[in-house]
Amino acid sequence: MKTSAIALILVLVLALGAIAQDAPELVTPTYGQHCVPATGTRFAWLPKARYHNWELQVADNPWLAHPLVQVQVMTTHYRFAGTLPAWTHLYWRVFYINDEGQWYYSCLGHFWTAPVIHRPEFLDEEVHQATHCPCWTKRPVDTLRRARLWRGAGGGR
Predict the structure, then answer these.
(1) Which of 3, 6, 65, 97 is deepest in the core (most CB within 10 A)?
(2) d(CA 61, CA 125)
(3) The pTM is what?
(4) Using the 8-state DSSP alphabet, how is residue 147 labeled?
């Protein structure tokens, strides 16, 4: 009895390892990425097997219940033509079904969307041009500090 239980566990571990090897790998948005544009968001992934029918799901919850985006595509990338909710923590994954009916899910990715860009009136032109990330905070002090830190790290002109 004990030997059969160990054998069953070993088979399950090997099967899960095989599934993980075939699972697609998320590329963009990267895991935990901030300031992802809410409009025209681009999703991309790497296939681990040669399949052409993919389903992309994006939701505001890690269970992907009631997805904001659920689309089937035949490529390993997709640009969402609409606008995702701004200032929002979103989750995404892709999957395919092989010829034997097995489902292969990617790991769950997550990212934060940026607001729709409206230039804050408190920023002067120099600071505005120094920041390429459209992720403005709602507080001017944080935005100016972020812009200076970014510029000091080699960004800007």
Answers:
(1) 97
(2) 37
(3) 0.64
(4) H
Look at residue 81 and give its three-state secondary structure.
coil
Which residues have a Cβ under 8 Å from the Cβ of 92 and sit 6 or more positions away? Answer: 26, 29, 43, 56, 57, 58, 59, 69, 108, 109, 110, 111
* Cα dihedral: 76, 79, 84, 88 (round 10): 50
The tens digit of pLDDT for each residue in 31-71 reads 999 999 999 999 999 987 777 789 999 999 999 999 999 99
Buried b (16+ CB within 10 A) or exposed e, 120-143: eeebeeebeebbeebbbeeeeeeb
Q: Residue 50 to residues 24, 60, 82, 127, 129: CA-CA distances in angstroms?
A: 10, 30, 29, 47, 43
CA distance 135 to 152: 17
Residue reference for tokens 């010829």: 99
